[in-house]
Fold this sequence. Notes:
Blueprint: H1 2-17, H2 69-76, H3 94-100, H4 109-126, H5 137-141, H6 149-158
Amino acid sequence: MRTLVGLVVLALAVGVSGCSNKGLHDLRHNGDGPDEFLVMPAKPLTMPVELRALPEPTPGGTNITDINPNAEAVAALGGKPDMLGQTAVPATDAALLAQASRYGVPADTRVALAEADAKFRKRSARSGRFRLFPVDRYSQAYRRDKIDPFDETQRWRYSGRETPTSPPARNR
C-alpha cells in the first residue's frame, strides 16, 4: 500500500512539474522590477583629468560617457545613426517598402489592433477569472494567426514551387 501511495505521489509531482515554465508565452508582467527592454547599458566610467572642468549635471540630459546612446544602439544593430528620428524612407529601402505595401496599407492599423485587443480581452473576461489550470494567453491571442508548417509545405508543393525538405507530417 505504501508503495502505491509513493508511486501516485511521484507521478503527481512529475505531472505537475511540467506546468511550471511557460517561458515567453506568459504575456503578463510579473514583477515590480524594470522593463529589460527599457534599460540601456552604459559605457564604463572614466576618470576625467581635471574634476573642476566637469559640466553641471543635467537630469535626463546627456553625459560625457554616453553622448548619444540611441544613435549608438542603432549603429550597434546595423543601422545608420544619422537616420535616427527621420521619418522619410531612404532610397535604398524604397523597393522593400513598395513590395511590402503592394496590397495597400490601412491608415488605421493601430486603431484596428487596439479594437481587436479590446474585443479579445472583453471576451476573455466573460469566461471567468478563476481557472483550475494555468491558461496560455499567448496561444489564445494568436490562435487565428497560427500557420501549420506542414499544410503550408503541401500548399506550396501542390502549386508547383520548389520547397525545402522537411520532416514528415506528424499524426493528427
